[in-house]
Amino acid sequence: MTEPLLLILAWLGFFVLHSWFASHRFKAWFRRRLPGLWPRYRLLYNLVSALLVAVPLGIALLRPSPWLWRWTGPGWWLANGLAALAVLGFLYSTRYYDGMAFLGLRRDTAGHIGSADEPFVISPLHRWVRHPWYFFGLILIWTRDMNLYWFITCLLATAYFVVGSRLEERKFIAEYGPRYARYRARVPGLMPRPWRHLSRAEAEALMRGDG
């Protein structure tokens, strides 16, 4: 088996397992089979995800492959400037998440894993894009120097963000109903568009269920 094919299979395996472990069906099975571990499900989910992603990420970052392009001159400043803004945006967004709960360091009998099990909250960034972390992630991965293995990683990760966001939103609609459907109709999914966003008053109305 060639190494690029191994990389592709490793990423596909991670994406499938990562989504499966986040599904309601798997969580229901886990809760029935391992009730004693259920309050720590989020922590276990995060630890297993970190172990699984280490395989394809290690191949992409540590194995040599031919360069496709490398940023130099003004392009270097532009690419790394965008990456720095993405990191700052990510750090800003953490103000609106419960970090201890997100990491699984707080016991949680509901088995939350940072998805539709939580209250419907529209943060300032969520007024502009439905999945700000995916947006920042896309900026970060595509602004790196690009060799063949990283290019494969970026293509697969982008596809996963597109497909994964749609799968997540099925759960969101099931949980939040028409509120989330109205929110989705107003705000773009992965890439902000200045002409499509919610004002603060509109976001607050949707969170109350008035929108």
Radius of gyration: 19 Å
| Class per helix and strand makeup | mainly alpha
Major sheet characteristics: 2 strands, antiparallel
Low-confidence spans: 111-116
Number of helices: 9
Q: What topology, given as strand order, has the largest sheet?
A: 1-2
The total domain count is 1
Structural shape: globular
Percent of residues in helical segments?
A: 55-70%
Order of helix and strand elements from N to C terminus: HHHEHHHEHHH
Provide the β-strand percentage band. Answer: under 5%
Alpha-carbon distance between the two ends: 54 Å
Beta strands, count: 2
Mean pLDDT: 88
Question: Would you write up a description of this structure?
Answer:
It is a single chain. The chain is mainly alpha-helical and 211 residues long. The chain has one domain (3-208). The protein has helices spanning 3-22, 24-33, 41-62, 73-93, 99-103, 132-142, 148-176, 178-186, 200-208, and strands spanning 67-69, 146-147. Mean pLDDT is 88; it is low at 111-116.
Keywords:
about 210 residues, mainly alpha, 9 helices, about 65% helix, globular
Helix/strand layout:
Blueprint: H1 3-22, H2 24-33, H3 41-62, E1 67-69, H4 73-93, H5 99-103, H6 132-142, E2 146-147, H7 148-176, H8 178-186, H9 200-208
Antiparallel strand pairs: 1-2
Helix pairs in contact: 1-3, 1-7, 3-7, 4-6, 6-7, 7-8
Brief overview, please?
The protein is mainly alpha-helical. The chain contains 9 helices and 2 strands. The protein has one domain (3-208).
